[in-house]
Amino acid sequence: MEHRALGRSGLWVSEIIYGNWLTHGESVDRAAATACVRAALDAGITTFDTADVYAQGEAEVVLGEALRGVRRESLELATKVCLPTGTGPNDRGLSRKHVLESCHASLRRLGTDYVDLYQAHRFDQRTPLEETLVAFDDLVRQGKVRYIGVSEWTAAQISEALTLADELGPTRRIVANQPQYNMLWRVIEPEVLPLCRREGIAQIVFQPLAQGVLTGKYLPGSAPPAGSRAAGAGRAPRFIGRVLGDAVLDRVQRLRPLADQAGLTMAQLAIAWTLRTDGISGAIIGATRPEQVTENASAAGVHLTPEILAAIDQTLGDLVDTDPTKTADMFAVKPEWAAA
Q1: Which of 70, 156, 302, 339 is deepest in the core (most CB within 10 A)?
Q2: How would you classify residue 61: left for phi > 0, otherwise alpha for psi between -120 and 50, otherwise beta?
Q3: In a domain, 96, yes or no
Q4: By the 8 A CB rule, do 52 and 79 touch?
Q5: What is the sign of the dihedral through the CA atoms of 198, 201, 204 and 206?
Q6: Which of 54, 118, 147, 181 is catalytic?
């Protein structure tokens, strides 16, 4: 496993980051979750990402239990706040009340005194940005948070936060952004990536496999294979349904010879592709089985040739989405190719 600096900060994270959205506490039982976490540790993964909203907090509980007994200083734990965790008007957003209460609840569930990275899960239009940044800063000063990040913020929102942080103080400055990014969904490339490179903000990207579509296991004209995310229970089929379609599945199958040429599995090819990009510190993987973790972690340190990168672009062609207006919330916009 290789590690990269988290932007311009002094924190280093593993190139492959283990995440538990839609798995721990939802579609994967505790025994399987623990086995996956152990496989991650065995592969050299040190960075783990979760959120207060995943399985309504249960994902944090399961992750904390799976990591129990591991030397805390050897890990980088990241979680998030903003999305609804209850039915009350203050059970969401980035108000001082919700940020502080949610952080304390996450620490209890994770069984730790601090998190290394605390991220604003989305931008909150209802709360003054200064209130949010000061609340984050208070958590940093209290030793409960080491670094501050955001997720799925637009370039304009990140820029506004940076300007305000410079006025308020350096400990409130964002060091990381967590966007969706993969071969098909590249909406951060026109605006978010250039801004973050200039400002020393790292990207830790999620969905490098496009919900499993880029693994090549879904075939055009065929039902989802048994045991796959699309054939499972819970919310997973609803999310992956947004990116399934024969047009994209056919094009993905044409990537298989490129993976073979590189000596990689399809999943490793997709993950290595995301890590090729300057400014990206890590790619978040999820798993339901330990062998998936082992396979995906092997993408660390892989360097794709310019010829393979060019062939990927040529193969996917017009299916690639680079529209920066879709940065704000991937769940609000269905890619044009998803319905094909």
Answers
A1: 302
A2: alpha
A3: yes
A4: yes
A5: negative
A6: 54
Tell me phi and psi for residue 91, to 5 degrees: -90, 30
Count of domains observed in the chain: 1
- Which residue reads 């065995």 in tokens? 42
In this structure, are residues 68 and 36 in contact, taking their beta carbons and an 8 Å threshold?
A: no
For residue 147, give both structure tokens: 């670094």
> Mean pLDDT throughout 144-153?
97
- Regarding beta strands 47-49 and 12-14, do their DSSP bridges make them parallel or antiparallel, or are they unpaired? unpaired
Q: What phi-psi label fits residue 15: left (phi over 0), alpha (psi between -120 and 50 degrees) or beta? A: alpha
Residue 276 near residue 269 (C-beta atoms within 8 A)? no
Q: Buried b vs exposed e over 178-195: b needs ≥16 C-beta within 10 Å?
A: bbbbbbbbbbbeebbbeb
Locus of tokens 């496999």: 209
Give the lowest-confidence range in 111-115, 214-218, 311-315: 214-218
* DSSP structure class, residue 223: P
Backbone angle region of 103, left / alpha / beta, with phi > 0 → left and psi within -120 to 50 → alpha: alpha
Residue 180's DSSP bridge partners are 206
Give the CATH number, domain containing residue 11.
3.20.20.100
* Per-residue pLDDT tens digits for 222-278: 666 666 555 455 555 555 555 667 888 999 999 999 999 999 999 999 999 999 989
198 token code pair:
């200039």
* Residue given tokens 């609804």 in the structure block: 84
Within-domain flag for 92: yes
Catalytic annotation on 114? no
Q: What is the pLDDT of residue 33?
A: 93
What are the φ and ψ backbone dihedral angles of 118, each rounded to 5 degrees? -115, 125
Does the residue 308 lie in any domain? no
SS3 of 125, please? Answer: coil
Dig out the tokens for 160 from the structure. 């506004």
Among candidates 207, 209, 133, which has minimal Cα distance to 171?
A: 133
Residue-averaged pLDDT of the chain: 90
Q: Is residue 133 part of a domain?
A: yes
The answer to whether 177 and 150 are in contact (CB under 8 A) is: yes
